[in-house]
Amino acid sequence: MRVKAMHPPYYAYLLLALALLTGTRGRAQDTIIRQNFEAAAPRPLSYTSPTPPYGSGGLPTWNVVTGSGAIAEAAEGTHFWAVRDADNPTAAAPRLEITFDADTICSLTSARFVFAYRVEGYDGGDDFGYLLYLDGIPEEEVILVDGRNGGGVSTDGWVYDTVPIPGTAHTARLLLFFDQNGDDVAGIDDVQLLATGNDGSCRPVCGLRLGEPLASCEGMSPDADELFLQIPYAGAEAGARVYSSTGRIGGDDPGRVPDGTITLSGLPEGEVHVLQVSGGDCDLTLPLEYPADWCAPSDLVINEVLADPGEDINGDGYINGGDEFVELFNRGSTDYALGQYTLQDASQSGPRYTFAPDALLGPGQSFLVVASSGAPDADCAYGVASGFLGLNNDGPETVTLRDPDGRVVAQWSVDDAPAGESLVLSPDGNLDGGYLPHTSVDGNRSSACLTAARLPVKLESFTVTPLAAAVRLDWITREEIHHEAFLVERSKAGRRYTVLGRLTTGNGHYVFFDYAPFPGQNIYRLRQIDTDGGETVYGPRLVRLDSGTVRVYPNPTTATLTLSGTVGPEVQSTIHRSDGRRVLSFRGAQANVRSLPAGVYYLRIRGEASSESVRFIKE
């Protein structure tokens, strides 16, 4: 097989001739640098290779020659660079590379690399291509010749190719690579840097563009939650660094990786944050502000998710990614308006499903979003995702339901979805029970739209507040059916729980005090008992009492409270009244409490998996 030339040799000669012609009347001639491997080439384009030259045309060869194998002559002049049997003991590498460095090119206009190449007999596994470096950062690799099994691939003689250089670049390098084994041969020749002039501008231009952030929630509670942000960017900029006023930076490095995603975690909602990218030629600032109710729990929950199907859910006769689904459930007592709400995963692909303007979901009802069209065997309303759902079944994944303003009203996250079965709430809508592998619930792989038994108790909130030497538990129920009692349970490490007390049916508002908590960490949960003996677990909730690692001073205080110990600028703290009500939130080691009324308060210091409580007096 032969590959037809994209650009005949005379194309480059024409460009060169035009540049030389205009050079007699201006400065265009100065923009031409060339490497044709001739001994007396004027203004040669410099090149380097990590592999020293060897051979003279036979097996193996990585050198300047006058002929090698089926290539008997150069594209221009009498010499060219040949590669024959690249994967050999002398090279000690299966892939050989040669780089042409144009150095500073920002003053050039319409700059481009042009080079000639020829390949004879490339088989399966043999590749030839290039990689363009702009300001030291690689662009996407391009394969020009890809060998095929069962027959050699050859070009139609010498072929010229052009690689444009964007005008924002300051420096440019062209790397040509050969991945080849055996008697096949390739050659390159007449490598040039061409431009229409040299009166361009070298003023600094940032090679980065920041995209629209995608914010998901690291928690879903009525209190202040923390956000996880994905910020896409286009391009790259050598020397660029990412800074943030709050949170932990992760993701790709725009100083080295083009077209990636910057991540920020641990950003409290209701505050203004700033992302800054500086270094190289960049000085970018991106304000990040999300309201306090950005992550607000609602009566609508993501009830079941199937990311790795093991059944034909959409009824098309196949088991594949088209059977992925997300089931929503209304655990409230009234209709839920879903008009223009969007469902999406953790990727930057936009909404997977958008609800109709008049969409409503009744109390106790489900809605199924399935990946591709078919006829699902479901007794609830369903819709088909736009294109596909694209759920990740072998790594971290998040599914988010957003209102028309972008706020998160329901969210599901997993590190690694189980193979062949869904993750489900049991009973339906029971977020406190957590998501369970479906086979552990009833032995089935999934149950799209099959409503389980109704919860006897609708728990609206469950909070745990550390006090000086005690812990206060508060929970509120919206509805109680066939409910008998709550058992309050405590554990030190979350493995074995002890019953602390039993509260029978009340007025929907429950309070319980633990006056003898463990030093340090305490884990609490509620076990709800039905009149028929059934049980539902809510929680757990974790709290830490003052472990002595943090102290506050002055105590008493009149204006400023200072924290000593291991408290960094990112640590979040809250101040509570003696009844547990939160009155102030702040970050770092100092708080202004001048506006608080005189009295006894408790400072709660929030960590990644626990919290500490310190008592102080405001005078």
Automatic annotation (TrEMBL):
Name of the protein this chain belongs to: LTD domain-containing protein
Endpoints of the signal sequence: none
Pfam families attached to this UniProt entry: LTD
InterPro entries given in the database record: Lamin_tail_dom (IPR001322), Lamin_tail_dom_sf (IPR036415), Secre_tail (IPR026444)
UniProt domain LTD: residue ranges: 290-416
